[in-house]
Amino acid sequence: MAALRSVSRLLTRRALNTTVKRGYADDMSFTFASGNQVYYSAQAVKQVDVPSFSGSFGILPAHVPTLAVLKPGVVTVFENDGKVNKIFVSSGTVTINDDSSVQILAQEAHPVENLDAAAARDVLSKAQSQLASASTDEAKAEAAIAVEVGEALVKAVE
Fold it and tell me: Residue ranges of the alpha helices (H) in the chain?
């Protein structure tokens, strides 16, 4: 029992030491890129909201280190000057590091203001048709992913 308490105290001390080392900055270093563009390159920002398969979540300075998969949706970036940028992502990863730096790597990303509502609805319609006519498991899975992206696109432009 005494050994258990010692381990507990050790874990508590380590957690406290990690918190002290990390500090609590007012902003965080943010990098966001996709195959077609770099949106942020180690820029200081206040907050980032991301869509993930475990549920959407906000990232603030001193967030616990995390690795998550992005689902199709809108990444919202709150810059230090008060500007808010909304960028649609088809998929990707988000990494939150111990030093409060954050990296998002998106398969495909585009500013929401550049998206066309009619084109988004067309993408969804075509994906739904592909899903309805898919005959193999592979084709069904690919079409289901396309439908998910299409639904997120339509939601982003509404």
Answer: 2-22, 117-133, 137-157
Q: For residue 8, tell me if it sits in a domain.
A: no
In which residue are the tokens 């396309």 written? 146
From residue 147, alpha-carbon distances to 52, 58, 70, 87 in Å are 17, 25, 16, 19
Q: pLDDT per residue over 80-131, tens digit each? A: 899 999 999 999 999 999 888 999 999 999 999 999 999 999 999 999 999 9
Bridge partners of 19? none
**Amino acid, res. 22:** R
3-state SS, residue 83: coil
Q: CA 102, CA 95: separation in Å to the nearest integer?
A: 6
Check: pTM over 0.90? Answer yes or no. no
Q: Give me the domain span that covers residue 36.
A: 20-113
The number of distinct structural domains making up the chain is 2
The residues pairing with 73 across neighbouring beta strands, listed in sequence order, are 89
pLDDT digits (tens, 9 = 90+) for 33-90: 999 899 999 898 989 999 988 778 888 888 888 899 999 999 999 998 999 999 999 9
Q: What share of the chain is helix, strand, coil (3-state, %, to 5)?
A: 40, 35, 25
In angstroms, the CA 126 to CA 74 distance is 21
